[in-house]
Amino acid sequence: MGWRFLKISRASVFYNVSVLTVSGVLFQLLGFVYQVILSRMAGAQALGVYRLVSPVLTVVLAATLSGLRLAVTSLSAGLRAGRDTGRLRALVRKSMLIFFRLFLVAAVPVGIFSRFIAEHVILEGRTAKALLLIPVYVFLIGFEWTFEALFLGIGKTKYTAVSNLLEQFSKIVLVSALLLWLGHSEDYGQVAFYIMLGMTLSEIPSVVWLLASYRRKVSSQGRARSAVGEEPLKILPLALPVSISAVVTNLIASASVVILPGRLIASGLSSGEALSALGVVSEMALPLITLPMVLIRAMSSVLLPTISRSISQSNGADVRRKVQKSFQATGLFVLPATAILVPLAGPLSKILYRQELEPAYVLLLAIAAVFTYFEVIASSILNGLGMQRAGMLIMIVGEGIQLLCTYYLAALPNLGIYGYIIGMILSPLAVLLLSLEAIRYKTGCAPAFYDSFLLPMLAAGVTGMFARYFYVTFLPLFGGQLLPILAAAACSGGICIAIFLMAGLHPLRYYKTLTIPGTARGRGAERK
């Protein structure tokens, strides 16, 4: 009798989440290579200048693409079963037309008035050159995000995964080459310009890949039907609340970043020290601590279309199951992973960035990261439930808390940058609590405290202590620090898995129960 192998359908949610997770791990690894290159070739102050460009970019992307991206994913998910390529093409055409109009209104003026924005809005004239490239970057990423959203919605996640990896690899090569050609420069504005130029050029291979994939898998499949369906008419009602929310929240978040150097100067730091502190936190420490975000992004990307599909089918039981399982999986996977990173982040930072992180930085950022993971999942569920307006108001509250903490706490001499980090903790915590209440009201269920929070916290505490113990134990036995870090992470991860098994939880099986659609049907997915 031959062996039977489990065959996973490429149309299943489990397959799609797995593809996004694996590609996300590779993407995150490439991202670390990119961050190491930036930190070593650019330095903390140059990264601080570049970080001041990011708020303008995020606001423009929020205005032009955030809502469209969600709308394309949600609406294309509804067409997935019918394989109606004519209606899919109509959806893409309408989305791109809306994007071009928003691009002319939101992105082009940034390039025209780059000097004014740099000197009078950001209050850092050295960002002007980098701001000139924002319209070109947004134009290219508009194609990328639209087609990635389409492929996510119709369940062809491998095209999105390849696009992300291609863009990240191209960015590493191009930014590295440009910074190497520039050499060591004290002109931090020029360094920020070259970073932005490399990012812009790296979008071209990704866009070419997605356009070719779209023509092969969607555009060339049959003729367009005379009836294009109602999907194009639903784009604005879906996209507008999300776009408004994203613009408002990103404006408030951008204000926090823009005023942070000034508030740090008010606390007693010099201008260079303030920019360095911003660069260390945002471009070095945070990417290191938020490594587990790769799984959260994969889960949140797939949760949105699957919950939307269950809502359209009046499958309330499956909606409630996904709400429970998504929070439980978040706690079980990312809390222990974050706990492993806390004692290892300091020595790992020495290897990657040639700069040691303060233990207080690491611990506070880890707490902020945990709340952020749950916040991302909760926000994705709200969008899947069609509660974009509630999500908008909740996010505004959260960013308002961050802005207040930045303005008042970061200016205190005894807090400084820690005041900003405190805001990074309180903001996602407030968003999470409000989102949980909104989800409970809409679905009639809330995540189980023991399975989603208490058990993962206990496992994380034990795992973190063992990670520290193993690192200290292995350090004298190996030459250097890399092998002790890897050995400590592996051993503490094994202990965490053992804890879950003793508690009756099999990680892979649990992961599959989250991603495989339920079969129970029923009403009550939402309250009338």
Automatic annotation (TrEMBL):
Tree of life domain: Bacteria
- What transmembrane ranges does the database entry give? 12-37, 57-77, 98-118, 130-153, 165-185, 191-214, 235-264, 284-307, 327-348, 360-378, 390-411, 417-436, 448-471, 483-505
Major localisation = membrane
Name it. Answer: O-antigen/teichoic acid export membrane protein
One Pfam entry for this protein is Polysacc_synt
Sorted alphabetically, which keywords does the UniProt record give?
Cell membrane, Membrane, Transmembrane, Transmembrane helix
What are the subcellular locations of this protein? Cell membrane
Organism listed in the record: Harryflintia acetispora
Whether Ribosomal protein counts among this entry's keywords is: no
Q: Which GO terms describe its cellular component?
A: plasma membrane
User: Which residue windows are coiled coil?
Assistant: none
